[in-house]
Amino acid sequence: MPISCVSPVASSATLATSVAKPWFVYLVRAANGALYCGVSDDPQRRFVAHQSGKGARFFYSSPAVALVYIEACCDKREALRQERLIKQLKKSAKEALVSSVAVGPEGVFIHRRDDLPSG
Question: Who's near 65: CB < 8 A, 6+ residues apart?
C-alpha cells in the first residue's frame, strides 16, 4: 500500500497528495540480544541479507536472528531522520518500542507514524 506524502515545499499546483515509494526504518535483534537499526525500501529483503552476513558489519560478531520492528515512512529522507532518532534512544527505550508492536501473521506489524506511542 503506497504511503501518501505532501511535500512541505509544494507549489499550489502540486498541493495534491503525491504518492512516493515508501521507505522503512527497522530494528533487527542479533543473537547476543543487541538491536540494530537501519533503513531500507524492502526491510524483509534487507533482513535476509543481514542473516546471510551481507550488509552491516554489525552482524559479523553476532548474527541477525529476528526482524522485530518496522516503521513505514513516506520517503528515504524521513526514514533516515527517524533512524537517527531511534539510534539516539537508550536500549530500554528501543526495547519498549519493540514490545509495543503487535505481532501479525508475517511476524511483525508495520507501524505508521500515527501508530507510535507518544513520549
Answer: 28, 29, 30, 31, 51
The residue with cell 516503521 is 71
CATH number for position 77: 3.40.1440
Question: Beta strand 23-30 with 35-40: parallel, antiparallel or unpaired?
Answer: antiparallel
| Interior/surface letters 28-51, b for 16+ CB within 10 angstroms, e for the rest | bbbeeeebbbbbbeebeebbebbb
Determine, yes or no, domain membership for 2.
no
Total domains in the fold of the chain: 1
Q: In terms of residue numbers, what domain contains 37?
A: 19-115
pLDDT digit string, tens, across residues 26-81: 999 999 999 999 999 999 999 999 998 887 889 998 999 999 999 999 999 999 99
The pLDDT of residue 113 is above 60: no
